[in-house]
Amino acid sequence: MTQITKPGPQMTPITQIKRRDGFLKNLICVICVICGPGGLIGVISGQQEASYTYAITGARIVPVSAAPIDNGTIVFTDGVITAVGGAVTVPAGAITVAGKGLTVYPGLIDMGSAAGLEPPAIPRAENPQTTEEVERVKRETLLRAHLRAADHMNPAAAALNKAAVAGITALLATPGSDGIRGQSALVFTALGADVPQIGGLADDRRGPLVIRPVVALHVGTADRPAGGDAHPNSLMGLIAFNRQAFLDAQWYQQARPRPHSAALEAMGPALAGRLPVAFRASTAPEILRALEMAKAFKLDPIITAARQVDTVTAELKAANARVIYSLNFPTRPVSLAPDADEPLSVLRDRANAPKSPAALDKAGVLFAFESNGLVEAKDFLKNAQKTVAGGLSKESALKALTLNAATMAGAADRLGSLDRGKIANIVVTDGDLFEEKTAIKHVFVNGRSVKLN
Question: Do 229 and 373 sit in the same domain of this protein?
Fold first, then answer.
C-alpha cells in the first residue's frame, strides 16, 4: 500500500488565487471597473483555490524528455512541476507520497475523444420542398467549421472522470458528424472541487477545463452521412462537398464586400496554414484523397483514424503529415456465427491494427493515439499495450501517449513530459506501464489528486 504523508496545520488555504498568467487578477480589475459603484458582483462566488504541494519520493521517474531516474523525487505546487531529479529537497508541509516500488509517468493524452463534449444538435431535414431548402439544410448540417468544442464541454461529465481514472489526464475533444465538423480543443479530464468558477452570475467551469481552445479543424467522411435526403448520400458526394466548402472559403477570404458566414470565416486560419486540418480517413484510398486535398489547398494535414496507414507511410512522410491512430481496434462482430467466414480484407485490418504504429515509427511519421469509439476508457491503455506486442518499442509507444500528442496539440511547452515548469499531469503505477499486470495507483490532473475508486 502506498504511504501518503499529509502536512500538519501549517497547510492553510492561500488568500488569493494563484494563476501563472495573471488572468483572474486582470479579470477582477476589469469587472470592478464595469460594475462601478455597485462593486464586485460575485466574481469568484466567495471561493478561493487552495494551495497544494505534493512530493513523490524514492520512485522510478520516466520524464520522457530525458533518461529515466531510478530513485528520484518529483515535486509540484499548485499544478506546476517545481523540481524533478535524484537529489531533490522536499519542501516543508508537502503532501508526501512514498514512491518505493512505484513508477511515475507523464499523464496520458488521448488525441481524439467525445468525452464531456455536448455540442448543439445537428439540424435535420424535414421534407424540404425546394432545392434552396435542400441546400440550406445540407450546409447547416455539414458545414460547421465555426463549432468550437471548447464552448460545449461539460466539466461534470462522467466520461471525463472515467478517462482520468484510466490515466488519461488530457484529451483532444473532437466534434463528431461528417463534413467540416468544427474545431477541437485540448482539455483536462478533471477539475479540483476547489477550482473557482469565473463569475458569480453563472456556474461556468468550462474555462479552467480548457488547455488550448482551438487545436485543429476537423473534416469527416462516412459511407452514408446521417440526416436523410438533404445530404450527399455517398462517400464521393461528401468528398465533393468538403472540397467545395474549401473553395467557398477561399473565395470568402477575398470577397469584398464580404457577406457574413461564421463557418467560412472559421476556415480562414486553415487556408492560411495557421491551423492544422485533421482529416478522418481510415482506408488507404481515403488517406491518399485527404493528402491530395491538403496539397491542393496548401493545408497542414493530420490524418485521424488511419486504419490502413501502414500501406501509405511513404506518402504521409512526403506530405509531412501527422497521424492520430485509432486504438479502437476492429473486432469480430458478436452477432456473427462462429463458423461464418469474413472477407480477407476485414481479417487483414483486424490483424494489422496493433502493428501499424510500428510501421509509422519506422517511417519517421509523427503519431499519437485516439480513443474515439472505444466504450471503456481503460481500453485506451490496454490497446496501446497491444501496439507494443505488435512491434512498437515501449519508448515510442510512451511518446505517442505523451510528448508526441502534446506536440501535435501545440502544447509541448506545457504537457507531455515531466519537466520543471510544466503542468503536473502525472500517472503513478506499480510497474511498467506496458505490462498487462501493472495497475495505476495515483493520477494527478493539473496537480490535483484524482479519486480512483
Answer: yes
